[in-house]
Amino acid sequence: MGVPELQEGAVAVREEALWRVRLRLAWRGLRKGWSSFAGNRIGLVGLSIIVLYGLMALAHPILMGTVWQPSVYDPVIGYDAPVVQKVVVPDNEVTDTATQIDLFSARLQNPLLKVGDTLDVSEQPAPPSRKHLLGTDPLGRDVLSQLMYSTRAAFLLGIVAAVVTVGIATTVGSVSAFFGGIVDTLFMRFADLIILVPLIPILIVLSALIHFELIHLAIVLGVLFGFGGTAIILKSQALSVSVKPFIDAARVAGGGRMHLILRHVVPNVLPLSFLYMMFSVTDAISIEATLSFLGLLNIPMSWGIMIYFANTQGYLLSSASYWWLLWPAGLSVTLLAGSFYLVGRAMDEIINPRLRRR
Amino acid sequence: MLKYIGKRTVQSIIVFFVFLTATFFLLQAQPGDISDQFLSNPKITPEVRAQFAERLGLNGSAWDQYVRYLENFVTGNLGVSFSEYPREVWSILKERVPRTVALFVFATLLAFLMGFKSGKVLAWRRGKRGENVITVVGVFFQTVFYPWFALIMIRTFSFNLKLFPGGKFLTVEKWLEKPDTFDANAVFGRMLLTVTLLGLALAIVEIWTRRMNNRVVGRRISWGGRILFTGIVVVWWMTAWSEMLPYALDIADHLILPTITLALVGFGGTMLLTRASMLETLREDYILTARAKGLSSKSIRDRHAARNALLPVTTSLVIALAFLIGGGVITETVFSWPGMGETLFKAALTEDIPLVIGSFTFIAVLALVAHMVVDILYMYLDPRIRVGD
């Protein structure tokens, strides 16, 4: 049968599988989104910091399996104290703490020592060296290894908390916007209640009395964020979607409630949900660090716990020479939380039409 | 407006009781009670422990205890603290609430003022050099790991520069020769009273002179008022309360660093939000009109744009409040400032349940009152609501 060429082409287009069309559209949207995101320098900085930390988190198990001996480099139970030879000098005449030790401190270890003798001192905390790039902590554990191990925990916590938050908030927001009435009132009053409750105090009370592990904390934070402020914001977005003509069109075409919510309301709320995911990662990371800083969480190692150790072992004010105990962990929390926030802001400028520069 | 305030109060009271109930049952659900701490002591028999539990009101079902607690709560009896045993919870709270409120109010005001002023300028200079830098600085303060930041502040300002004391409420050595006629709480109470009255007086002068038609005279009167009232306060403290003055200065010295630290952390969010809100306002037609009229750019910025940009910022203050209250708790623990946050933290660690509930509910009261104040402020600022009512 002779089929005209034009028709042939049309048939070919129609036969392209639906998922491929969708994939292509998604890809195009992604590329467009990326090109406007790439125009925002601050967002790019944030993203690169996140990628850097992500690589650190991935590298830790590999390093532990290959180069790093577990007995030395394990973030929790590893131990290593580099031995340094120091010359004993008279009291108050120490000019270089790295190579000299005063007589009084030296005699605490060996009462027979005289001025001019050498003494083997095992340093703990030890300053950065080739073996321990960021030094060791007061218990002789490698700081870089702790830092990398904690990165994984921070990502895990942040992502679980964010997914729970957004899952709950999107559902609550869409449902209460779509149904209105008593459902709406209940959820919104509940959200008000959660916003009013001071978050840190309630977590202090909870974690002092219950043994919190990382995953519990992530879920509790997700639930509190999800039913709280995020739900209100997403509900207002869902409300503005659910009065659009295409919802009516879909309803007239015979769409059920579930279909309307899942296929029409939720996809239009999702960009904003994704944005709030970023912000809840920020909050989750800093709250976890705060609670571990206070010594309330039942987790082996995290950035907050590193600072908790440095603080409780008395290295806060001792001298500036112990910078590696406080700065890497504190900066990491700040940088990672901050970069998620920056990415969120950059996305906000794309998603939120009011902030667009154009 | 009054009707709204009344409605809001009733709502807050209901929320408060829901909150109290939730807290109580949450803590009830914990296994064991204070009498279990003596389980391993052979000299304390089970009978003695039962007696002990009864005396502290720990017998009976959870519901019985709840009803008893609520009865006592309404009549103003918050129970007895376990960790500071014979002392009543209420007397501990009475001593510590003002300290938290002072820290919180000063820090909030400072954060809001700084954030608003800098956000205003930031929006005005959009696209200029340094904008990215300031945004990053704002985000840094917004997301900085707060305890670490506080520790660094202590290190820098109190250890290295020796400008302020590194924590605590007062320097004990200075208080040793204090006459017995007053104590620290009395001094602090008078300080708060002074600051409140001074603030009120200055606010009234400010509002009054703003409404005057003659701007030049108004400015002179407002400056005169500021100098006059500050002078009165200084003279009053120098003469009538002169023996308390050195001690008051000591407390004030301890208050400065925590306040600044808390305000620095709170100000980033307000700054970024003011910027966003200003950018939106600057695109309105009335800004164009003001420009076309030939008004100076400072006048457009401060009187036309900033006042309208203030509204969304005030709304966001609600979220900032939660942030500041949480931050206040951490500030108190890091700076050993003996307020509600520190009390709560210590009580939670020692499982001192009455004190936990007491301090926790009072932090909630602080949050509720602050929210209400912000809401009322919002209504006052928005002429559509203020005039229409």
Can you describe this structure in just a few lines?
The complex is a heterodimer of chains A (358) and B (389). Chain A is mainly alpha-helical and 358 residues long.
Order of helices and strands of chain B: HHHHHHHHHHHHHHH
Largest sheet: spatial strand order of chain A: 2-1-3
Q: Pair with the most extensive interface?
A: A-B, 43 and 52 residues
Specify the overall morphology of chain A. elongated
Q: How many DSSP helices of chain A? A: 14
The coarse silhouette of chain B is globular
Distance between the termini of chain B: 7 Å
Structural class of chain B: mainly alpha
The number of helical elements of chain B comes to: 15
Radius of gyration of chain B, in Å, reads 25 Å
Integer-rounded radius of gyration of chain A: 28 Å
Oligomerization? heterodimer
Structural class of chain A: mainly alpha
How much helical structure, as a percent, in the residues of chain B?
over 70%
Helix residue percentage of chain A:
55-70%
The succession of helices and strands of chain A, N to C, reads: HHHHEEHEHHHHHHHHH
Give the terminus-to-terminus CA distance of chain A.
54 Å
Low-confidence stretches of chain A: none
Question: Count of DSSP E strands of chain B?
Answer: 0
Strand percentage of chain B, roughly? under 5%
Topology, number of strands of chain A: 3
